[in-house]
Amino acid sequence: MGQDEIGSGGKLQSVLFVCTANIFRSVTAEYALKAGLGAGASCAVRSAGIDATPQSVHVWVQTRLRQKGVDPTTHVQRQLTKELVDAADLIIAMGRDHQVFVREQFGRYIPLFNQVCLGHDKPILDLHEVMPDWETDLERARAHVWSVIDMIWAAAPALLPLLR
Q1: Which long-range CB contacts under 8 A does 111-117 form with residues at least 24 apart?
Q2: What's phi and psi for 91, nearest 5 deg?
Q3: Which of 25, 36, 86, 109 is the most buried (most CB within 10 A)?
């Protein structure tokens, strides 16, 4: 996906990552991009969920993000709102349902994370989409969560040229 499809020719001032509950995929992308930008960056990086019912970031996500050098305990879960959508130069969906939601609710097309960062049209699925019975194999479920975090963390720096 080229810069023409993402935004105007200038550098972006704000990025918003969207997932379902804002406690796993989008928050990982937010922290990964903030880590890549470094302290004092002028670009605002946020995340939100299309169905952010109150819940905390799972311990598996917290543990892996701490291993990456960030403290997710300060994360404030956000519900996606028109104000957040209107304020973002670039909104990135983690899954197709997030794309559909933003298009239907706010009239805005948004690309998938993998389209922008890796150049392929593939959603990042939530744990229950990959492993509907994830609670029956907690070690495999944790490994999957960590692999998703690692993939997002490795791919997020592809956004840096758009922001600097």
Answers
A1: 111/1, 111/5, 111/6, 113/17, 113/25, 113/29, 113/152, 113/155, 114/155, 115/1, 116/1, 116/6, 116/90, 116/92, 116/158, 116/159, 117/155, 117/156, 117/158, 117/159
A2: -115, 135
A3: 25
Q: Mind listing the pLDDT tens digit for each residue in 35-55?
A: 999 887 889 999 999 998 888
Q: Are 152 and 113 in contact (CB under 8 A)?
A: yes
**Residue 74 buriedness (CB in 10 A; 0-12 / 13-18 / 19+):** exposed
Amino acid (1-letter code) at residue 126: D
State how far the Cα of 97 lies from the Cα of 46, in Å rounded to an integer. 19
> DSSP code of 90?
E
95: CB partners within 8 A, 6+ apart:
19, 20, 25, 112, 123, 124, 125, 126, 129
Q: 43 with 13: CB under 8 angstroms?
A: yes
Q: How far apart are alpha carbons 71 and 63 in whole angstroms? A: 9
Q: What is the rounded radius of gyration, in angstroms, for the C-alpha atoms of the chain? A: 15
SS3 17: strand
Q: What is the pLDDT of residues 62-115, one digit of tens each?
A: 999 999 999 998 898 999 999 999 999 999 999 999 999 999 999 999 999 999
